[in-house]
Amino acid sequence: xxxxxxxxxxxxxxxxxxxxxxxxxxxxxxxxxxxxxxxxxxxxxxxxxxxxxxxxxxxxxxxxxxxxxxxxxxxxxxxxxxxxxxxxxxxxxxxxxxxxxxxxxxxxxxxxxxxxxxxxxxxxxxxxxxxxxxxxxxxxxxxxxxxxxxxxxxxxxxxxxxxxxxxxxxxxxxxxxxxxxxxxxxxxxxxxxxxxxxxxxxxxxxxxxxxxxxxxxxxxxxxxxxxxxxxxxxxxxxxxxxxxxxxxxxxxxxxxxxxxxxxxxxxxxxxxxxxxxxxxxxxxxxxxxxxxxxxxxxxxxxxxxxxxxxxxxxxxxxxxxx
Length: 322
Ligand code: SF4
Hints:
The chain is an alpha+beta fold. Among the domains are: 81-156, no CATH class; 163-275, Lambda Exonuclease, Chain A (Alpha-Beta Complex), CATH 3.90.320.10. The chain is built from eleven helices and eight strands. The strands form two sheets. Strands 1, 4, 5, 6, 7 and 8 form a six-stranded mixed sheet that branches. Iron/sulfur cluster (SF4) binds next to α4 and α11.
């Protein structure tokens, strides 16, 4: 049953709809508007999401207006070469970790790349993303970038010394691309975990960790990891709620050159669980009040809606992503 949405005219009336064939397609700024319009169906009825993923929760935390536009009204920003590369590398690592330990080599990863790429290339979202991205210059650059990321990956994680676990949801389920879902407070949360793993420590104790691969740029400061940790903590809360497993470590693997880790306790997860509930309460309050305020920050430069967002345009904040 879809959750009803109170119309939010105060934040959406300023959005000019742009359709293919519109002259704005000819100018670079509006090309992204056109890409957004292509992904919007006029039949879409604004609907509150039935469940929240960590990324949608993060969108709401950073800007309720953007959350409304993307997650409620159904607008989508343009895809990019970077998202296609990310999908490709995630698929390769998923396949790699399913192989016997002795086969997890860089050469094998390169072989898997060749096997996986045709399937990724044919995905409708890949085709749409490459059509949207003006920087796309052919598949060779994507494959070269993926090779570079894999090469770096093998300097970051020991793929032979650790093993993935089987998690008993409803029968054995691989610890790769694991779908987790649970009710937290009044809301349903879900997500896909890149890898859940158990390491046997020298003293025989089991050490469980949640691993997430990132193919984007390295954050310039550890302070900028807040959204990533929110995502990881959400996964850990969902694992605990769904199967009673308490994760001891969160690991963010940036294939561009660095691994960040963080230990967690049950008390940390209790605090985070309360934060997750607050996010949903915030969504409900915005919906009830029919008010989804924009919250301009320096990150607006990377928001697909920046060209027609009055809050950003009037904020005086410079666009650092022109
Ligand atoms: S431009 Fe900034 S304020 Fe406007 S919707 Fe995007 S993130 Fe929010």
